[in-house]
């Protein structure tokens, strides 16, 4: 899996998270999983919080059946950077300025990738609406790309709580977590909700112990719409 070309200008560093060790760990994990991903034949691939757009662009370059690839970010600057990286690599990717996956129809995502804000920073101050307004009203602090609130899981838990609605029946999520995010607890929580969770890669870097989780549906798991029909 080749690393896509990306290009930051001086103004971008205060607005968009630059690819770092966590990004490249997730890229390595996706490369390890590439044959399984191809076998799933995903038609809709989504990265939440793409930042530079490096990961979703790498995915698009590897999937020759030309799926729809989306980068979804609450930060408009990250959306623009994702489109720039896509263009630099001639790999068609769309970017949507949106809060997580609220605007997508149910059960439409076949491949989901998320490198969340994972650093524990205490309780998040302000409402979601206030944070959205910060991004839309002008330059926003880069802290939003890594500050994860209590246990570093405020944003992650919101996405996981919506996973049953958004993931296709054969869909899969690749999620990066920090040791302090308690990945084993995340796996148990998802298993209680009918998913399978596995740690597929980990890496120690200076000051951080990172994990990549693969989460998909357990065999025989019914979709939310099927449950509602009962």
UniProtKB/TrEMBL annotation:
The keyword Transferase applies. The keyword Methyltransferase applies. GO terms for molecular function: nucleic acid binding; protein-glutamine N-methyltransferase activity. It comes from the Eukaryota. PROSITE patterns: N6_MTASE. One of its GO terms (cellular component) is nucleus. It catalyses: methylarsonous acid + S-adenosyl-L-methionine = dimethylarsinate + S-adenosyl-L-homocysteine + 2 H(+); L-lysyl-[histone] + S-adenosyl-L-methionine = N(6)-methyl-L-lysyl-[histone] + S-adenosyl-L-homocysteine + H(+). InterPro entries: DNA_methylase_N6_adenine_CS, Euk-Arch_PrmC-MTase, PrmC-related, SAM-dependent_MTases_sf, Small_mtfrase_dom. Belongs to the eukaryotic/archaeal PrmC-related family. Methyltransferase that can methylate proteins and, to a lower extent, arsenic. Catalytic subunit of a heterodimer with TRMT112, which monomethylates 'Lys-12' of histone H4 (H4K12me1), a modification present at the promoters of numerous genes encoding cell cycle regulators. Catalytic subunit of a heterodimer with TRMT112, which catalyzes N5-methylation of Glu residue of proteins with a Gly-Gln-Xaa-Xaa-Xaa-Arg motif. Methylates ETF1 on 'Gln-185'; ETF1 needs to be complexed to ERF3 in its GTP-bound form to be efficiently methylated. Heterodimer; heterodimerization with TRMT112 is required for S-adenosyl-L-methionine-binding. This is Methyltransferase HEMK2. It comes from Anopheles darlingi.
């Amino acid at each position: 899996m080749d690393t896509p070309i990306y290009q930051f200008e001086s103004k971008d560093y205060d607005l968009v998270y630059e690819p770092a060790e966590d990004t490249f760990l997730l890229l390595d994990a996706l490369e390890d999983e590439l044959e399984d991903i191809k076998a799933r034949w995903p038609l809709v691939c989504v990265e939440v919080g793409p930042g530079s757009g490096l990961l979703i662009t790498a995915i698009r370059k590897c999937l020759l059946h030309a799926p729809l690839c989306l980068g979804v970010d609450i930060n408009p600057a990250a959306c623009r950077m994702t489109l720039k990286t896509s263009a630099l690599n001639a790999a068609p990717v769309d970017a949507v300025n949106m809060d997580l996956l609220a605007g997508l129809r149910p059960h439409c995502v076949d491949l989901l990738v998320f490198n969340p804000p994972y650093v524990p920073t205490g309780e998040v101050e302000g409402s979601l609406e206030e944070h959205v307004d910060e991004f839309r009203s002008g330059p926003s602090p880069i802290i939003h790309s890594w500050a994860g609130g209590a246990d570093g899981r405020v944003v992650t838990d919101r996405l996981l709580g919506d996973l049953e609605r958004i993931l296709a029946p054969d869909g899969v999520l690749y999620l990066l977590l920090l040791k302090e995010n308690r990945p084993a607890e995340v796996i148990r929580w998802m298993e209680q909700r009918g998913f399978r969770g596995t740690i597929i890669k980990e890496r120690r870097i200076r000051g951080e112990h990172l994990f990549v989780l693969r989460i998909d549906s357990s065999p025989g798991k019914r979709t939310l719409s099927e449950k509602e029909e009962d």
